[in-house]
Amino acid sequence: MDVRPRTEPGRAALFSNRHGRHGRQGGPRRRLFLIALAAALAGVLTSTVVLAVTGWRPGGGEPAVDAPAAPATRVGAGVSSGWPAWGITHTQNSVDHEQGPAQGLADLSATPIPQVTPIMGWGVDNPLPRPGEVNWASLDRRMQTIKQTKGTPVVTLCCAPDWMKGGPAGNTDWSRLELAVEPRHFDDFAKLAAAVAKRYPEVRYYAVWNEFKGFWYPPGNRWDYAGYTKLYNKVYTALKKVNKEIKVGGPYMVLNSNAPGRETGPSEVRGSWGSMDQRDLNAIKYWMKHKKGADFLVVDGHSMPVQKEIRPNEFQVLSKFSDLTRWLRALGGDLPVWWAEWYVEPVPSDWTDQRRGAVQTAAMMEFVRGGAAAAYYWSPQTTTTTDCAGCLWSGTARGGGATPTLGMLQNFARWFPPGTGLSSVTSSNPAIRVLAQPRQIVAVNTTAQPAQTRLEGSPLALGPYEVKWISR
User: Which long-range contacts (CB under 8 A, 24 or more apart) does 184-192 make?
Assistant: First the structure.
């Protein structure tokens, strides 16, 4: 059978999204797209998480957060220096020794970063078309790419073969990719996870499933967090039996928020950017209470609320990332917080590369300040064209080399790895945001006009949306 990465039905339409996002499936809740546009209060550069004082404790007594964790003073909020922090996720059109581009491979190798791959979909074929019939070729190729570019491999255990989701064995219907595993096949999926771990012993980090795909419970207008947690616990147990040193995390919940004044119900977390959808928080809290164990807590999200008719200032809503990270750190105790995917750009978008780069860099600053232990950039890519907004390497027509987005991520991996102490450096101009460690400062102009500031007594001038890395 053809084991090269396949294009799932409808993939072209999904890939035309500037974020290169995967699709959503299942119930009214799924229409709350993370890629939606949103709103936030203008003129507010920072925000503080506010815990809703409603007396309402949804979810039947799951853990509550009395106060968010403090802003981080060191990168990674206590994880070890070898922790995989700032990296990328491979998607449908990625770089490898067969697809290229060669220069992209070389540039990705120059400063190694963590690299995430799913086990099925987004460029990886069905690993188990029918019981007993394994098909590792495309996943082998993806793993070889990560090894070749000296990356730390991270695996997302999603998605599942059709026969585990009610489909026929031997068939792969890509339109059904995002269906959940049926409960009667939870054990089969756990065995598949263990088989992956045995085949790739170099992989020590696994996230279980992806965005609760298929785990929506329409009668209750909520997530099926009990069903997901049962699957998670079986996978966790299976992986730990393979190697107790394997790190396993969940629940990989998507965190949607509403614009200020657009609340759909009580919420435990809110800020100047709006308020969280409590149903997402309830799912995380249930998992926290009922999980068998975990080595990290995984979420993803968009900086903007779901109300697509309102366009916010994109820099002013970024504090959602640090606010939520601090809330999650307090909820999860010592569990490191991972952002498996993160998005900042509205769709459709007319942003320039400079504007996009400035927002992405400012978002990474929020992850660091909030104490996140990891953030992985979902990789939109193309192999042939010259126009690929937000890509990590250019199309072959432009040489296929690294873009400023990849360079930015590599700079964070180089200068802000876990354990790095953060320095207090103040910008005299609030329109220029800064993040500093003892040897390096990164500064971002958040406006479309030239701007000036003073850092540590010295003047600094930046062009419109300019990002500058400065040695101390």
Answer: 185/160, 186/230, 186/231, 186/234, 187/234, 188/131, 188/164, 189/157, 189/160, 189/164, 189/231, 189/234, 189/235, 190/231, 190/234, 190/235, 190/237, 190/238, 191/238, 192/119, 192/127, 192/128, 192/160, 192/161
Three-state DSSP at 137 gives helix
Q: Cα dist. 398→48, 125, 127 in Å?
A: 43, 29, 34
d(CA 169, CA 186): 16
**Pair of tokens at residue 382:** 């193309």
**Helices and strands (H, E) in the chain, number of each type:** 9, 18
- Cβ atoms within 10 Å, residue 288: 21
| Sole residue written with tokens 């990849």 | 406
Q: Which two tokens stand for residue 265?
A: 């119900």
Q: State the Cα angle at 56 between 51 and 59, rounded to 5°.
A: 100
Backbone torsions φ then ψ of 307, nearest 5 degrees: -70, 100
pLDDT, one tens digit per residue, over 307-335 is 988 888 999 999 999 999 999 999 988 89
Report the C-alpha gap between 311 and 321 in whole angstroms.
Answer: 18
**464 contacts 445 by C-beta, under 8 angstroms:** yes
* pLDDT at position 371: 97
Handedness of CA 207, 209, 213, 216 (dihedral sign): negative
Output the CA torsion sign for 270, 336, 148, 96: negative
pTM exceeding 0.70:
yes
Is 76 in contact with 418 (CB distance < 8 Å)? Answer: yes
The answer to whether residues 257 and 197 touch, using CB atoms and an 8 Å cutoff, is no
- pLDDT tens digits, residue range 32-68? 333 333 333 333 333 444 433 333 344 445 667 888 9
The H or E element spanning position 269 is none
Residue 98 binned pLDDT confidence (cut-offs 50, 70, 90)? low
Q: How does DSSP assign 194-246, residue by residue?
A: HHHHHH-TT--EEEESSTTTT-EEGGGTEE-HHHHHHHHHHHHHHHHHH-TT-
